[in-house]
Amino acid sequence: MKHLILDKPLNVIKKTKSEVAPQSRDAVRNRKDSTNGILANEEGFNRIIAEVKDYAIVILDENGYIRNWNIGIQTIKGFASDIVGQHFSIFYTPRDQEEGLPQSLLREAREQGRAVHEGWRVRNDKSRFWGSVVITALHDSSGKHIGFMKLTRDLTAKKLAEDKLKNYAADLEARNRELEQITYIASHDLQEPLRKIRTFGEVARRNMEDPNKVRMTLEKIEDSAARMSTLLRAIMEYTTLARITGTHAPTDLNQAFQRAKGQLQLLIRETNAKLTTSELPIIDGDFHQMVQMMVHILSNAIKYNNRVPEVNVDATLVQRAEVPDLPEYLTEPEYVRIRFADNGIGFEKQYAPQIYDIFRRLHSTHQYPGTGIGLALCRRIVQNHRGHISASSKPGEGTTFYVYLPARHVPQ
Hints:
Layout: H1 17-40, H2 42-50, E1 56-61, E2 66-69, H3 72-77, H4 94-98, H5 101-112, E3 114-122, E4 128-139, E5 145-154, H6 156-187, H7 191-206, H8 211-243, E6 249-252, H9 253-263, H10 265-271, E7 274-277, E8 282-285, H11 287-303, E9 310-319, E10 334-342, H12 374-384, E11 388-393, E12 399-406
Parallel strand pairs: 7-9
Antiparallel strand pairs: 1-2, 1-5, 3-4, 4-5, 6-8, 9-10, 10-12, 11-12
Helix pairs in contact: 7-8, 8-12, 9-11, 11-12
């Protein structure tokens, strides 16, 4: 539908129909000729496109190689004129490139006239943004396909707002599950030592005249009370972490490692464990929580071991685009990857998602002592730092934990 643009005030249109018609036709013809002249003028059209800043626009040849671009490419994606001649797949994540998404979109645009897609895109500095993309097939006057126009709009703010709402809902659901787990612990695990205390109390009363039996019974009561106390402390520690994200400041992970190692000295001496580390970076984090995390990961590596324990800790600076398995809501351009590799007993792959559940244990307390809360605490600490934790393991071949933390404050 065409629109007539009135460039005179309405009060001048007070003529008869016969007088108005020729002038209206002339006005429309002049307006149409003027518009066609602008659009037909390649230089003028390019000037209009070049000044559009809210959209990144590139012209591609029929094979997807960049032939022209506008200022939006700089403002949104951080690229400049050196992208001319490169394939437009440079705007896509490594995973999308491996899965052939750029070629698929070109094929769809070629066959259907246009292709529409939303997803994470890559800037020149390797950071990511959520882009809404429209690719339109271009044809010459004879109808021959000659290339594509690709328009991209940065919708990161909208995407992050939507993700934030989803994360709130997911976090609420997770906290409800944790509350159910804690309730279960209170009604089952804490009941066990209470039941033993009551039972042994009755035994002690019945054997008041036998000091040896009373002493043995009291020792069992003390053991049960200690077990209950340990569980209660673990619950308090976890719920405290769930409420408090910590005080973030430049944190030297070398110092955190040495502090954690110091807290584990008794266990290290008892097992002759060997803990080694390379130079670790400084991150933006809570020092106390970093120590907590390392204590739990290192102690697990030492305890769940049938040999002389060996644990190596190192760290690497990685680009976000190099780690496709990170959750999509983690969009920092760089992350510190801390690796904890041990020679312990390992575990089957299917148990990997379960090991972070609160009080989840893969072994009985008779085999390996502990509360089963350590890795749940580690996950909470990593989440407090807007990071991610994962593990790879095989039975008998040890376990490697990977902790990813934002590298915003890592000295370059």
